[in-house]
Design brief:
Number of strands: 12
Radius of gyration: 36 Å
Order of helices and strands: HHHEHEEHEEHHEEHEHEHEHEHEHH
Largest sheet: 7 strands, mixed
CATH class of one domain: Alpha Beta
Number of helices: 14
Helix content: 40-55%
Length: about 500
Amino acid sequence: ACCCCGAPATIIAVASFAWAAIMAWLVALYLARPVRSVANTAEAVLNDNDEVAVPAFHGLVPREIRQLGAAFNTMLEVLRRRAAETHKALHEAETSNAAKSQFLANMSHEIRTPLNGVVGMIELMQMTELTPSLQRHVETAAQSSQSLLRLVDDILDLSRIEAGRLQLVAVPFHLPSILHDVRLLFTEQARTKSLTLLTAITQDMNTVVAGDKHRLQQILTNLVGNAIKFTPEGTVTVRCSGQPEDEKTIRVRFEVTDTGIGVPAERQAVIFDAFAQADSSMTRRYGGTGLGLSIARQLVHMMDGDIGVQSTVGIGSTFWFTVVLERLPDTVVPVITPPARPPEPPPVVAPTTTQPAFVSPAGVEFRAALKRFGRQSVSILLVEDNPANLRVTQALLETLGCKVETARNGLEAISAYRERRFDLVLMDCQMPEMDGYEATQAIRRLEAVLRRRTPIVALTAHAMEGSREAALDSGMDDQITKPLTMAILTRKLLQWLAPAEASSC
C-alpha cells in the first residue's frame, strides 16, 4: 500500500519540477532575455556606442516587452537625430565664429593699412613748421586717427575675449606708476575742458606688484576718458586703495569719481553690456560704441575682480573696480636713471637730396644713440608694396637719418639683399608675387651662403593672435603692428641695432 501511494507522489513531484523548468525556460526566453537585451542596449549607449538598437521581438514575447523595445529604439533614433542637429549647430557656430574672426582680422588689416599712411603723414606734418591754424587742423586729424585706431582695437579685444583667446601677461610694476601714467595721458584733455584732474593713492599701495599692467591701464584709461567726456565742468578724481587678500596677493580698488551728468538708475544695470550706453542720445552727442565698459568688465573678471557704478543724475558718478595682484618685493623693479639729454641743437641740413631738409629732434637723439653703439650710419632695406605706406615709412626713416633702399615685393627684396649689406630689414608681410614670409625664408637660406645674419622686423597690419608667431616661424626677429609711429619705429630700431651685449641688458 505504501509503495502504491508513493508512486503517484513521485510522479507529481517530477511533473512539478518539469513544469517549473519549462516555465523558467519560457520566462527566460520570452521575458528575461528581451529585458536583458534592452538593458544591454542601454548600457552600450551609455558607453558611447551610438550604432546599437534593441532587436525586434517576435513570437510569444509579451506585447508590453515588444512595445518597450520599439519605444527604446524610437528614443534612440530621436537622440541620434538631436545629437546630429546639435553637432551640426555646433559646427555651424564654430564656422561662424571662425568666419567672424577671419572677418575681424581682415577688417583690422584693411583699416590699419590706410590708417598707417594717415597716422604717418600726420606725424610728419607735426614735425614741420606750421601756422597756428594748420597746427590745430593737424592735431584734430591726429586725434581722429587715434580714435579710429582705438575703435578697431576695441572690436578686436571684444572678439578675443569672446573667443577666449585673450591672455593676460603679468609683469612687475610700481603700482603708483599706473596713476602717474593716467595723469600724463589726460592732463591736457582735462585742461582743455577746464576740468581739475586729481589722483590719490593710499600709503600702503605704494608697492611693487605683478599683473597685466597694459590691461589695467586700458581699464583705467577707459573709465577716466569717459569721466572727462561726460563731465562738462568740475573735477575728475582717481583713487587707489587696497587690502591684502592673502600672504602673496592684494585686492586693489580703483575709483574714478566725476561731477558729470550721471547715469540713470534704470541704465546702471546694463551699462556694462556690449554696445550699451545710458541712452541713444549719448551716442549722437558724445560718440562712442559702448564697447569700452563691456571690455573693462570682462578684463576685470579675468583679474578675479569686480566692477560697478554709483551715480546720481546731475550730480556725478563713481565707477569702481577691483583686481587681485601679486605683491612683490620692492627690489623687483629696478630704478633706471635715464642718461642726461644734451641740449637740443638746431635743425641739421641734410647732406643729400634723398633726405629731408632737416633732421628732427627724434633724429638727433637717434643718431646720438647710434654713436654710443659705435655706428656712424644705418642702412635699412624697406620692403613694402603699398605706395602710401612705403612713402610714409621711408620719410620717417630718413627723418631719423637712415639710408633707405626700397623694394615692393619679396622678389625685389631678395635681389637687393643679395647685392648689398643692410643693417636691418623692415619687411611687410602681405605683398604680391612673393610675400614677406617667403622672402624672409629665402633670405635666411641666402645668409647661410653669405655667412651673415641681418635682423628682419615684420611690418604688418594684422593684430590678431598668431600673426607674431607666423612672423617668427618664418625667420623674422620681431614685429611692428601698423599704424607705425616715430616712437615705435625708433624704439625697435635701437633695440635691434644695439650691440648684442647692450640689447640683452
